[in-house]
């Protein structure tokens, strides 16, 4: 199945929010190229992230990622944690996600079901008119990215801020 441009954008953004890998520079360049044909402002935002990625070694990238998404409770990389904290609601949310993944033969891999890059990859596989896609966007991802962005209003120095802002704009379209 050939992905449409929106699916490619979701996949690209999921890669930028995933734990840094050796090919992050290439992934970020691909994302910039994809946005250049669709949204110049988003392309500029991702280019600022690309400048950071190109000038930072992998060890430092990993350190900044961990500080941003793993240690910082205001910007946790798990959607259920942001929406529900450590509660039974998060457990139920994750169980429902696993059920949807299984129904659609979507591979969870080694991540928890509410891992944000995984949710974006799952969104790539869904028809935009599917009720699961609409619920995932409106009840999960948009509120999560609104909270993440709100928590960085005063911290424009974090290199992930342009990515978080771009994701929110893309999801709200």
How would the blueprint of this fold be written?
Layout: H1 5-17, H2 24-36, H3 40-54, H4 58-71, H5 79-84, H6 88-103, H7 116-124, H8 131-150, H9 161-172
Helix pairs in contact: 1-2, 1-7, 2-3, 3-9, 7-8, 8-9
What does this 3D model show about the protein?
- The protein is 68% helix and 0% strand.
- It is an all-alpha fold and 173 residues long.
Summarize the structure.
The protein is 68% helix and 0% strand. By secondary structure, the protein is mostly helical.
> What's the number of structural domains?
1
Low-confidence stretches: none
User: The biggest beta sheet, please?
Assistant: none
Structural class by secondary-structure content: mainly alpha
Helicity range: 55-70%
Rg (C-alpha, Å): 15 Å
Query: What best-fitting shape do the alpha-carbon axes yield?
Result: globular
Spell out the helices and strands N to C.
HHHHHHHHH
Number of strands: 0
- The CATH architecture would be Orthogonal Bundle
Can you count the helices?
9
β-sheet strand percentage = under 5%
Distance between the termini: 23 Å
CATH C-level label: Mainly Alpha
Using the coordinates shown, work out and report the CATH topology: TorD-like
What is the mean predicted local confidence, pLDDT? Answer: 90
